[in-house]
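Journal club prep, shared notes

We agreed each person brings one worked example of a sequence with its structure written out as tokens. Mine is Fructoselysine-6-P-deglycase FrlB-like protein. I'm keeping it raw so we can talk through how to read the token line rather than staring at a rendered picture. Sequence first:
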Amino acid sequence: MVLGGDHVLKEIDSQGDCWRRAPRLAHENAGVLPREGDRVAVVGCGTSWFMAQAYAVLREASGHGETDAFAASEYPEGRSYDRVLAITRSGTTTEVLHLLDRLRGVPTTAVTAVPGAEVADAADELVVLDFADETSVVQTRFATTALMVLRAHLGSPVDQALADLDRALAWTIGDDLLDRRPYTFLGTGWTTGLAQEAALKLREASLSWADAYPAMDYRHGPISLADGASLVWFLGGLRPDGLADEVAALGATVVADPLDPVADLVRVQRLAVAAGLAKGVDPDQPRNLTRSVILH
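Then the structure, token by token:
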């Protein structure tokens, strides 16, 4: 029997305490976060990239300014931005550090959990979420807390998310959800990035076949995978109309509940850990992964 998951489970359960700090941190760091009207690029790797995608859509939709999101390794050289915002839990991610070094002269801010890491020298400004740092390789509370701080900076209240988080943490995970092929996550708008993160959690923590798509694009090929063994999870509401009925008619299990999308992501985190433990996988130490990707 493989024991594990203690760290990530505690970190998942602690997210409410972290999120409650978001409004104050957004206020305290207002001077180093993107200003309204700025043209902004947001970068990260893996989970941090998916949080960047979600924030970019939210920021544009709220009227704060043009915002692009890139994997740090794919940042388009030659574009002009008023500020580049980097998200990096460890502050040591190679692609992020290399990019920040190339961007000397462009205002940069890094959101990190480790203020003493190399990113402190690479970025002009830091937003420090050291209280949300994690022992587990699998990211949970740092990513969601970073996004909640950025949402709060855009003027979004945290009350509903916190109320829905209580529901997410109390959700009973049925045994029938622990081994699906595939797990598919669908999003629209800013929840498309969250769908990508949800799929990554299943892959990391349980070595499961999991994928993610914009909901409208799911019909364009991936729906061919849906059958009685699959689960299709809608993050952010049942959109487009009729798609959930189409999927259910194919025999797939559909999950779509009216929760704040970040709180709904917490349910996915819990499912990923439970699925990993059911397979004898240690979610705290995923296969072939380390806490920070450092390239030599």
